[in-house]
Amino acid sequence: MSVDFTVLASGSRGNAALIRSGGVGLLIDLGLGPRVMAARMSEVSAGWAGVASALLTHTHGDHVQSASLKMLASHGIPLYCHEGHRAELSRHAGFKYLERADCVRSFDERPFLTPDGKRIEPIVLSHDGGPTFGFRIEARSSRRGRPVAIGYLADTGCWTRATADCLTDVNVLGVEFNHDVEMQRRSGRAPYLIARNLGNRGHLSNDQGAGLVSAVLERSARRTVRHVVLLHLSQQCNLPALAINAAKAAVRDRGASARIHAASQWIPHPHLPVTPSRRQPTVATAFPWESDADEVPFRLTVE
């Protein structure tokens, strides 16, 4: 049996991911409305009824929506958030439903367990959305099975050695590859927005994301990291090919072997069944291309 990891959406218009083990789901972020979330989950044979808990990275609007908080409450699904999130979350009517349903749980910087046995290790990140976290998540497909480890960092302006240390030996590494620096500088955006995105409390560039991938691979046992997932690509200031080429170079420079995936804003991608197997995968890449004209994605594989 495997642990399933799916990015339901990734980008400035909404973020959510789903991890399932033993048929029980954990949502990371709620940046989509409940109907869209349900539609995305149904595409991978999942649904609200199979979600046991939810986990919040931070309170920016592309990571949490009030209506989806209310949906959690209606299903009795607990939300794990940092105590520093509460002030902003209290502005959402949906959060009040969660509080009344006694479905709010707090985490700090220490690892904790969800009721179904997933181990969550928060990773403190640098972002202007208040307290912001990435996570190392370990899940087992069966009680006696070996754990699958998943790293997830969606919004941060920089990373440290401690960040890479927390992600050592994950099987799936999800890292923000938000922008190409030159595209960002030439974007025509307001100067303050460009400065924010390039700053230490903004978003990782392709080169910064690739640097983190390289640092994690350097620390990890050979063949352990089997999937690298590129998160939060900017539609205006990045191209999937640019992000993938940066990640591919990091993987090859370390002599590693991993599949590289660019997550999509519009479709559930990637959808990965992951086992603790140590078999070496073939080096490949897969990503959905997003057309500015009609926003219809298609997949392209680059060998």
Question: In summary, what is this structure?
Answer:
This protein is α/β, with parallel strands linked by helices and 303 residues long.
Number of domains: 1
Do you know the CATH topology? Metallo-beta-lactamase, Chain A
CATH first level: Alpha Beta
Quickly give the CATH architecture: 4-Layer Sandwich
- Percent of residues in β-strands: 25-35%
Compressed to H and E, one letter per element, the order equals: EEEHEHEHHEEEEEHEHHHEHEEEE
- If strands are numbered along the chain, what order do they take across the biggest sheet? 7-8-9-10-11-12-13-15-16
* End-to-end CA span: 28 Å
Q: Which superfamily, in CATH terms, is the homologous superfamily?
A: Ribonuclease Z/Hydroxyacylglutathione hydrolase-like
Bin the helical content: 25-40%
The overall pLDDT average reads 91
Biggest pleated sheet: 9 strands, mixed
Low-confidence stretches: 279-303
- How many strands? 16
Global structural class: alpha/beta
Number of helices: 9
Radius of gyration: 18 Å
Overall body shape: globular
